[in-house]
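I am writing to request your help with a piece of structural work I have in hand. A protein sequence and the structure tokens that stand for its backbone fold form the material at issue. Please examine both parts with care and let me know of anything in them that strikes you as inconsistent. The record follows directly beneath this note.
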Amino acid sequence: MKIVLLLLLAALPLGAWGDQGHRAVTTLSLTALPQGPRAWFAGQEASMAGHASDPDHWKSDPKERPRHYMNLEAYGGPGDLPRTQEAAREQAGGNFTRKGVVPWIIQDRWRDLVAAFQTGDPAKVAEAAAIVGHYLADAHVPLHTSLDHDGKTTDQRGVHSRWESGLMGRLQGLDALPIPMAKPDPDFLLRPWAWLEQAHSLVPQLLADDLAADRTTPRTTRGKARGPAYWALFKESQGPVVRQQLTLAAQHLADAILNAWIAAGKPTR
């Protein structure tokens, strides 16, 4: 398994969370599975990693984009988030889907994973696990929880990409991230809201750290060209946060897989 991890993670391109990060989450999640569900992914590791970014290629569908985020401020912030789409419609009106629907998509795609286990087809299981893992990982990205997802109101445009892509490409040792073993959880479908609230709590410090690092960057007529000083400061302050959120996403994907396997009746391969 260690060899598979090294090969897959070494092949990751320097892309956004939607590529490098999503592949890392799916691959690392397998290290946290007990033997029963883990057996379903034997020989499917590369396929699972290959499907990890599929939903990002579906965004030409206008219904797809809101599936990747939830703007918590639209509901007054953490503490008063709707748990059902009916409640969201009552709070935010008929266009509530534009505020983001990622927790409900996680629920739907998790049910798809249960159904995949029931088909007995390992390839379908690997693909379904990758898809639910994509949306689950998005829920762990701080700026996927905020209305101001790219620093527009704070004059920090591009901060989304700098956190997701810039830092990811500068981090080492992703293959060594320790992932806690997956645990049975009869209330698993209620967990996405807690993940969103935890990720949202990181937004103020993320923006503050970007702003602090950016003081090293002079503004020119062509905009800002952030150099080594910026990246050294931003990596020092936010690099551990990126690692933390990747670890949590991989842990929670492992939980999703284990609990889907249990819900499917613990099928054997």
In short: The chain has a mean pLDDT of 90. The chain has one domain: 2-263. Residues 228-263 form the longest helix (36 residues).
